[in-house]
Amino acid sequence: MPGGTLSTRPAVFTSLDVHDVRFPTSEHLDGSDAMNPEPDYSAAYAVLRTDAGDGHEGHALAFTTGRGNDLQTAAIHALAPFVVGRRVDDVLGDLGAFSKEMVHEPQLRWLGPEKGVVQMAVGAVLNAAWDLRAKRAGQPLWRLLAHLDPEEVVSLVDFRWLTDAMTQREALTLLQRAVPGRAEREDELLRRGYPAYTTTPGWLGYSDEKLERLAKQAVADGFTQIKLKVGADLLDDVRRMEVARAAVGDGVRIAVDANQRWDVGDAITWMRALAPYDPYWIEEPTSPDDVLGHATVRRALHPIKVATGEHVANRVVFKQLLQAGAVDVVQIDAARVAGVNENLAILLLAAHHGVPVCPHAGGVGLCEMVQHLSMADYVSVSGTWTDRVVEHVDHLHEHFVTPVQLENGRYRAPLALGGGGEMLAASIAAHTFPDGPVWAARRAPQAVAAEGILA
Amino acid sequence: MPGGTLSTRPAVFTSLDVHDVRFPTSEHLDGSDAMNPEPDYSAAYAVLRTDAGDGHEGHALAFTTGRGNDLQTAAIHALAPFVVGRRVDDVLGDLGAFSKEMVHEPQLRWLGPEKGVVQMAVGAVLNAAWDLRAKRAGQPLWRLLAHLDPEEVVSLVDFRWLTDAMTQREALTLLQRAVPGRAEREDELLRRGYPAYTTTPGWLGYSDEKLERLAKQAVADGFTQIKLKVGADLLDDVRRMEVARAAVGDGVRIAVDANQRWDVGDAITWMRALAPYDPYWIEEPTSPDDVLGHATVRRALHPIKVATGEHVANRVVFKQLLQAGAVDVVQIDAARVAGVNENLAILLLAAHHGVPVCPHAGGVGLCEMVQHLSMADYVSVSGTWTDRVVEHVDHLHEHFVTPVQLENGRYRAPLALGGGGEMLAASIAAHTFPDGPVWAARRAPQAVAAEGILA
To answer: Which residues form the Mandelate racemase/muconate lactonizing enzyme C-terminal domain (chains A, B) (predicted)?
Structure first.
């Protein structure tokens, strides 16, 4: 308009860039389990940019294990029309509406619905938007979320298909009940950090010696829970469980994780063989889609707890796991469902059913992102961290701008702005697939060797 | 080898080509429902070629509703390494192993697992392989399947995660029980065709007059069941149901289909309002992932039947729908799960639980493909067609090499070789997105108009 200046024009989103970033983790069997013998931890990495001129960008990622990361990257690209060209304040000011627009897009939803690469793509874009909103608000994401009005939290959640388990009013009441204690819990969180457990000792590919050494180290580092991968060979698992129990003593919880390897009957038989070593929970005993199967396993194995969720595609399956009494532990993942919004729905459902949430993390960037959700849950949703722990795996943190900080077995509450998922530009460039230097070198080892000789 | 000839070298797969084919169906509201207001029926279309020199190719498709068909196409491309360069006889001779290799690929499975575009891509490649196998055997697919030994059928099925509901032995017994009646049922099928029902009258976008006219036409054409889309507006649905019931009379079944529109409570309320018009089944009352929700709806609405399945991603969810008594009708889809193999698993599960299978079809090519599964089920799995009907929608059949043939409300058993999903080359070329002439014209209407003036 005449006389107007650039600064009065509302800022718009100018781009959604996506990078295919992969780490060659299969070379060291870090991350090896019964279903993922050789994962290359990867990120379909999203960056939202605006013309606000404030220096802020929104960063987040969808995690994959290598092949297929290109499909995940393409799925995020497909969501660009939802955001590029739109006013930043409109989108960030109503992330509930933004979420629903993407989740319910009538043609794209056919590819799920609400599952697979499209669902994870929605999660990445939403999480990038939340990262940007937190940065613009001058807050770490956990604190931004923890300070939202209960009414806004409810507006962020998609209650479609949830109301037989939890109504909007019930969710609002739950959130309002937590308001009075928020300030005190925030102080406590900042002082003490959030409880963690570690999976670092327990990968399937590790020798007994390495398991023992790392398990002892975990206890020395202040962890009160470790986790072992199981499910490939029963005799191996019994031996490894014995090694681990001897290493950590009786006072430390040992969770075990079968990564979906078993049928229902196998899960029960196998876990009964491990029971003498007092496993704390069995994680992913069977298909992540099998609500009734988990319920059967849980009834049979009591008091061993049953945990699942890292591969659960959406809130509807979590709802049923809770309705059926199928799990003792809900394991959200920052990058599997439709972002912060759907994870808020799951935190509310779990709190409403009185079931603890112990997030899945590890991979690449998952610890950095998911810690914010548990911290917000503690301050303003469930209001407790009793029997709650966030997974910690000591891999790939060096690639992030604000890596997680563990202290005495607890996550220190991050003070840096945003949602935690921002990767270093140099790491993105080095690991871009297939043409970044890390992969170019692996693709043509002879050529690289020849270059070395010639140089 | 010296002295060998080309003809003694075993044939290998030379290519997996994939085409992004879209039909602008949104322009006429064919296919409109409560969740898909404006679908463009599309196919991520796969072609397997070999160097056998026998003229046979394997054709199949994954169905989508428009946007995202490029992602589905890319997902099929990603499976090329599983097939290109391999010996044709090795792959086609053990399609059970081939299926498991793709479904359980440890890195790609992270993107599901067993759901979304990767799952549908596995389905397309497997279905193309089955199409080729049937053509090489000189058989229509239904007849090839119906003549397999029970032992081979069991070897095709992935029993992972199924054994708490059905063991391999139980499946084998069921199949063996059907062997003595196979020949008689095959004759009956060839004589009479397989029962169908029609959705053609009932799209949401149609006027009452069009609904009435098409409903009467359906009865005149010999159908004993029609289907109406519901779920957008209750008063509209009551009126449309009244129109439809008056048009078809009392002797014809009217199924209704909400396409996932409702929460559990809504489904019950809404269907009670339609109950006076005697709806036969309510299809997709709520989320396709909500096993427990369907069970609740079914209990509340008895004797109205509950049907679902076209969006159910895999056999594990079907297993639970049956275990929980959540459905009266199982609706398989030829292109949603991991192909013929997983659909055999679902047919076996349904037969084991005594629940009829009434496939979802329509879209593009879904009738052509899925009829083979119901016919094989009749001859050699469940052994009955009582209360079984295959959906028929009268759209887009003209694009197929061997379109379905309906006669007096029944599918005639196809005699042409293969699985039915082969599209005409001219249709593929015309509708390729975005550069085929059908889409180029829509992208640049002014340019096309200008060309017309200049010509």
So the answer is: 208-304
